[in-house]
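Lecture 7, part B: from sequences to assemblies.

Below are the input chains for today's worked example.
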Amino acid sequence: MAQHSRKGAQFQAVTASLLVEGLVVYLTRDNRWSESLQDAEVAEGKEAGEALLARAQPFVANNVVIDTYLFEVEPGEKGLVASSVREQIRQAGPTVRLDLGKQAELG
Amino acid sequence: MYRYDEFDHQLVNERVAQFRDQVSRRLTGELSEDEFKPLRLMNGLYLQLHAYMLRVAIPYGTLSSRQLHKLAEIGRTYDKGYGHFTTRQNLQYNWPKLKDVPDLLAELASVEMHAIQTSGNCIRNVTSDQYAGVAADEIEDPRIVSEIIRQWSTFHPEFSYLPRKFKIAVCATPDDRAAIRVHDIGIQVVRNDAGEIGYEIYVGGGLGRTPMIGKKLIDFVPKVDLLAYLESVMRVYNMHGRRDNMYKSRIKILVHEIGAEDMRRQVDAEFAEVRKAGHLVLPVEEIARIESYFAAPAYETLPAVSPEFEAAKAADKGFADWARANLAAHRVPGYAIVNISLKPIGGTPGDCSSDQMDVVADLADMFSMGEIRVTHEQNLTLAYVRQKDLHALYQALEANGLGTANIGLITDQIACPGLDYCALANARSIPIAQRISERFQDLERQHHIGELKINTSGCINACGHHHVGHIGILGVDKKGVEYYQVTIGGAADQKTAVGDIVGPAFTEGEIVDAVETIVETYLDIRKDGERFIDTYRRVGVEPFKETLYATH
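Predicted structure of the full complex, as structure tokens:
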């Protein structure tokens, strides 16, 4: 499984791809999958992170999502922001096609 | 061009039906992702950063206008109205949905296309020279042998589970436009002293984490023995290639570790065995049948110099600029090879909208016998254009954003999709290429600089061929931040070389200035008539290091 967080990351969220569409989604506080990072549940600390990731597993078993993993986020003034460039691009869409991806669809 | 026979049709249609069933079983949960992943990869379907990505094979880069229209239609129906031409002459769709892929593949099959051999540890889609059949100094159309290899390698049971992927490229002119020395097997079509056509074979080239230049194993393999020789190489690799470590599993590592001499000895021994069995002697009639598909089209008898062409160049500066950069000499008088740049200033290298694909397909019908080639440098080529039609063709291209006059110049860059699309990438490639393109957009300056190839990869896997760029840029990740390492002196032609690293990596903010410093250094020290690569070969890396890091 891909590892996109870092050891000692304080805040983490869980992401995956929808099996049918392949689109990027985030595990929410009410145990759904949302295309918006702002809906994501944030786990603080290592143990909470592992528990959050474990919560994603039934969705893998039920063929809703694939490729689940934890990644580091930072709560900011305008909401949650992914820490790495990679996850920022995944969350928004290609930086060279601002008309595509979540940046275009979610506003 | 080659047309499928009944076996090809059956094979591709059966594959679509199989994959339809596999997708259906995956969606119902009968297959787990672990079970399904190798199956989807055998059909060119990856999971990328934002969505699935489907890689469509374009064998040896040749397309009919009907096929290109279909690719355009698929882009509109199943994707977001565009596709991306890759350094392996393939086309990638960036946004297909898993549930749609069986229908998409059925659409491809209706025009004799598929996604077979675009992924997995098999012999991949064979690549070749975009000037096949029309280059003046060509020994024989390299697509003949490419097609033979396609038929031999597709679903070859012995070579479907190799230690790692395996790439073959073919070239038939002294100028190598297919980068054969950085492929697992590179085939150079040659003629021996007796006037017979055969093949010089290079083995063990490759880019990626451990770049290697292919070693010549044999000077001349007769036509009838080509598959026997290739099979012998494959057997030695299949037997001894490492399966315990994916970073050491390519044939380049095997050849490097045992040496070219031992590799040659083992291949020769296997070759003797294969020939003894006699199964793989290529029937002369079959070679002739395939040759007939690549016979020269019915050319008109035209004057070597077209007055219409000359007059249009004198009257239209934009056309003259385009003709200067984008045309290549044709073997038939009165014709030209036209390169269509997919590198507009500030654009994404290799991207082509569905509308543009339709335009190119229509123009191919009007001006170039309905055939299009894809280049490994991510451009398109029309191979049969009458010089007197060039101006009309240019005007139509220009009106559709396809008239960029920069082939072989500094803004004609190779770039992989990078972190904007690719799940493996560490850094973005496309924005770097775009900003370099914008910095050097002045055409006069581009011509003043002359031939200069800048290749950018977003990770060490080197899809952007950075090792063999005259200037190579490799994106790296340092604690979640993008940095760019620069090499210079690489080349993928007949003097193939892996570039030298100049020093510490640059930030995203510094990289374009660094490229400009390299270019200015070259302009300062070049001698008359020297291209960038010539100057580098004369002076080495030191003068460039000095100017690049002078202030550090």
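Note for the exam: The CA atoms of residues 204 and 253 of chain B lie 7 Å apart. Keep this in mind when comparing with the next example.
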